Amino acid sequence: MLDIIKLIVVLTVVTTVAGLAIGFTNTKLAGRIAEQEQETRQSAIGSVFPQGVKIDEVKGGGALPGKYWMAATADGALAGYAFEMAGTGYAGDIKFMAGIAPDGKILGITVLFHNETPGLGSRVNEVPSTKYIWYPMGGSEKSKPWFTEQFVGLSALRPIGVDKIAEWHKLDSTAKDALKEKNTVTAITGSTITTVAFTKAIEHKAKGYLEAIGGVHNISIDTGTDTHAGGSAGGE
Question: What is the maximal distance between C-alpha atoms in the chain?
Fold first, then answer.
């Protein structure tokens, strides 16, 4: 009986100390984590808009997210908006920043957070390399992930198709143009669920956000729906 009491006391002390240590660490790191999240968000906002625009943060609410961002060119013309969106991927929510023009055209997408499978869904951030072991001084590196780059120029107001042909970065310009004409992206090989998470999030949110903005700011925004669907979607 005495041994059991000693064991309980030791376990209680150990778990208490571990809990205090974890709490202390979280408290110390909370500020830095928040700073990193803010830095990531600011970087994402800049990356989904054209260069040289003036970006303003706007408080939302109602049909809009809690906050979003508006961008204008040097002459004051409206360039577009940035919204945080989230879709359900294979391993949980995928959060991303989407830049969208007033006519619904996608200006850019940057991933903020995901827990997708390494080597599969995690390839949403993959940047194709043009350098090889046998030619280390090869062509210049592309700076943006191929997966999100293929959304640029598509309409967020039309259904976005998902095609399982070769991945976008492996296609020639003719094939890429054909996909854009169909408002379609290519799936990450073996990760169709991850791919569809992006398309569905955009389809479910973009039109409503733009319509809400038009009402709040009395801005004429083209949210006419084109029912033309492109490509074919499939499971994982």
Answer: 82
Structure-token match 């908006």, residue found: 81
82-100 pLDDT tens trace = 999 999 999 999 999 999 9
**What pTM, to 2 d.p., does this model score?**
0.75
More confident residue, 217 or 138: 217
Q: How far apart are CA 82 and CA 177, in angstroms?
A: 25
d(CA 131, CA 141): 7
Q: How far is CA 123 from the centre of its chain?
A: 12
Q: Of the candidates 149, 148, 128, which has an alpha carbon nearest to the alpha carbon of residue 139?
A: 128
b/e 4-43 (16+ beta carbons within 10 angstroms → b): eeeeeeeeeeeeeeeeeeeeeeeeeeeeeeeeeeeeebee
> For residue 132, what are its two tokens?
């090889």
